Amino acid sequence: MRLRYRQQVTAAGVSVVALALTLGACSSSSSSSPSGGSSASGGASSSSGGSNLSGTLNGSGSTFQLTFQQEAIAAFKSAQPNLTVNYGGGGSGKGRTDLAAGTVNFAGSDSPIPSDEASSFQGKTILYFPVIIGPITMAYNLSGVSNLKLSPATIAGIFSGKIKTWNDPAIKADNSGANLPSTAITLAVRSDSSGTTQNFTEFLVDATGSAWSLGSSSTIKWPSSARAASGNPGVAQVVKSTPGAIGYVDYSTAKASGLTFASVKNKDGSFIAPSPESATAAADAVALKPDLTFAAVWQGGANAYPITYQSWDLVNAKQPTAADAANLKAYLGYLLGDGQKLLPQIGLAPLPSSLDQKAVAQLDKITS
Amino acid sequence: MSTAAQADPAAPAGSASPLAHRRPLGDRVFQILAAAAGVLVLVILALIAISTSQQASSWFSTEGWKIFTVDWNPATNSFGAMSFVYGTVITAAIAIILSVPVSVAVALLLTEVVPQRWARPIVYVVDLLAVVPSVVWGLWGILVFAPWLFHIYTSIASGVKGIPVLDALFGQPVSGASFFTCGIILAFMITPIVTSLSREVFATVPAIDKEGAYALGATRLEMIRGAVWPHSQGGVVGAVLLGLGRAMGETIAAALVIGSSPVITSHLFAAGYDMPAVIANQFGEASGEFRAALIGLGVLLFVITIVVNLIARGVVERSARRKRGA
Predict the structure, then answer these.
(1) Strand blocks (E) in B110-238
(2) What string of DSSP letters covers A186-237?
């Protein structure tokens, strides 16, 4: 009897200790300082303007930015060898969640903070730094047709499943004189949620209004005949391997996969092929809000490619230490400065200079 | 000395040899460690359940009973989970139906038919299937296996056209990525688990039972049916249920080959979706209620897995009781 009692006491004691340990671990992680992964080692912390910075900057989010961030981090290393920058993808939603939780110093996001997330950023001022823009191509696989032209209404018809074959009158009307086969259209779409899907469907909503009934979101309920694949490369693979397929693929991936893509009719009524130049032209015309948010899809301008999207780096205006502020200013300054020169070679477009200057001017709002 | 004896009543009174003292201390440390490990598992499980339910609460509260609808459309903020539950159940069922007969047959082959020196290489090969990472299964499934299966699907579909039930089951294939492809890939993945667990169970059948059956003039098949099967029924059911749990929870392979279309349809060759796959696919960009709904799917999957496990345990215990009674 005494033995059993002792065992119970031991078991209870052990469970209490385990519980305490676990809860302790939990609470300490959730109450960690907003600087999170940042650890600026002393010494360089007081240097302003950043000739010799040290420490670590962590970022996560948009996979659209991932290639650019990787290239920029590698190039930035030679300018600031002691400042380590890490960028993990994971998606814009993850980036914003991480920034709200304070586990990263900056977040990559393809869209501004949506209203239902605003509460998690309560009491903080978030600064938006536009860093890249890029075209989304209408990539297709149709042998013998090389200069396809598509108007927004036709694209809406194709992606809502109403236009089923390539010789549909609507496609013929966009391509007078072209010899279009009667091949069935196979839709290639994203299976994962994506900023690419979000911006592509925003374009359809803006450009066609009520003709597009599937709405705009990072995940769309596509017609059930659509072939879904993961990531831009996955969609590119489906398009490449399926005769008659059409999909929306980020320009750099479409280029890298050697896909053919259509010219799309813009707001001014001319058919424009996707390219870094036509994307920059689209961003040149945007209506910029004071916080530097905008939407580059469906912008006016004779040479603007209408399905152009953008990505921001989001940071807290108030940084916990002077070192964090200096490090962020240096890295974001690089992204907006020399980093922009890296963009065309990876199939993305640099910011138009007017926008870039405004973003650079905003760097001063990062304080400690 | 007397205090030590009081603190540890388990120690035999009056024994002063160091050996007698050391053992209870070791026992005590072991007891604490084991209890800590056991409690830790429970606490972790409870914390996971609490925090996920908490984060999913806005889904349960805003959608209410609508979580049991089919309509999953983030663009219109409707998050009904049933198409994913359906996909999870269907693909796991296909996997079990395809995998269990093969697994049990291979296990019987290894324990009852082939001699030990032949059994070992076969065991190695089967176990090798288990070390293939799930992403490799998924990529092989979508790049190699699915396009190949698609030809088979289309010929089956044209063969059953117009036949009432078969047409509903095997008609209208869209692409190689489907419920059925996912089920086959899952079957590949759970076969090694079910095989090796069944083999362990069959190996515990007392030789004397088997010899007794032979002595009564039983053939090998009769011996397996009369001596091996009754003894190992419960264990095999347990093995199958472990496989089922793995099949229901498999994420990346399923996400790659299932086709990502949230529908409920009788067509097994159509693209579908299941719970782990939708979480993996859509979590990255999700926010607000969308995010809560995805976490809620995780909670739902958790609940379903627990229910399946409880049923499993019940089945195993009942069969064990019946055997004891017999």
Answers:
(1) none
(2) EEEEESS--HHHHHHHHHHHHHHGGG--S--SSS----TTPEEESHHHHHHH
Q: Is B9 close to A191, i.e. CB distance below 8 A?
A: no
Is the pLDDT confidence value at A114 over 90? no
* CA–CA separation, A280 and A269 (whole Å): 18
pLDDT given for residue A51 in this prediction:
66
How far is Cα B321 from Cα B326, in angstroms, rounded to an integer? 9
Using an 8 Å CB-CB cutoff, list chain B residues near A11: 35, 39
With an 8 Å Cβ cutoff, are B76 and A215 in contact? yes
Q: How far apart are CA A194 and CA A218, in angstroms?
A: 5
Query: Which structure tokens are listed for B135?
Result: 């992403």
pLDDT at position B301 over 60: yes
3-state secondary structure of A261: strand
What pLDDT does B59 receive? 93
Amino acid at A351: L
Q: Is the pTM of this model over 0.95?
A: no
* pLDDT of amino acid B20: 52
A349 touches chain B (CB under 8 A): no
For chain A, positions 102-131, list CB contacts with chain B under 8 A: 114, 116-117
Query: Which amino acid would we find at residue A235?
Result: V
Residue B266 touches chain A, beta carbons under 8 Å:
no
Collect all residues with Cβ–Cβ distance below 8 Å to B235 and sequence separation of at least 6: B197, B198, B200, B201, B204, B316
The SS3 call for residue A319 is coil
The CA-to-CA distance between both ends of chain B, in Å, stands at 53
Contact B176, B146 (CB under 8 A): yes
> In this complex, do A10 and B35 lie within 8 Å of one another by their Cβ atoms?
yes
CB-based contacts of A348, cutoff 8 Å, min separation 6: A67, A68, A132, A133, A134, A251, A252, A276, A279
Task: Determine phi and psi for B133, rounding to 5 degrees.
Answer: -65, 150
Q: How many Å apart are CA A345 and CA A75, to the nearest integer?
A: 14
3-state SS class at A250: strand
Amino acid (one-letter) located at A23: L
The answer to whether A12 faces chain B, any CB pair under 8 Å, is no
CA dihedral B246, B166, A228, B80 (to 10 degrees): -70
- Name the residue type at position B68: F
d(CA A129, CA B264): 43
**Minimal-distance CA residue of chain A relative to B176:** A227
Q: Could you write out the DSSP letters of every residue in A63-130?
A: STTHHHHHHHHHHHHHH-TTEEEEEEEE-HHHHHHHHHHTS-SEEEESSPPPGGGGGGGTT-PEEEEE
Q: What is the pLDDT of residue A222?
A: 92
Q: Are strands A227-229 and B72-73 parallel, antiparallel or unpaired?
A: unpaired
Q: Which of A8-12, B144-148, B296-300 has the lowest mean pLDDT?
A: A8-12
Is residue B8 within 8 Å of B24, Cβ to Cβ?
yes
Cβ–Cβ below 8 Å for B75 and A221: yes
For residue A134, what is the DSSP state?
E
Task: Quote the CA–CA distance of A59 and A312 in Å, as a whole number.
Answer: 12
- The interface residues of chain A toward chain B in range 51-90, judged by CB-CB distance below 8 A, are 63, 90
Taking the CA of residue B94 and the nearest CA in chain A, the distance in Å comes to 21
Identify the residue whose tokens are 């996707």: A274
Q: pLDDT of A234-271, one tens digit each?
A: 999 999 999 999 999 999 899 989 999 999 999 999 99
Reduced to 3 states (helix: H, G, I; strand: E, B; else coil), residue A260 is strand
Asked if A138 contacts A261 with a C-beta cutoff of 8 angstroms, the reply is yes
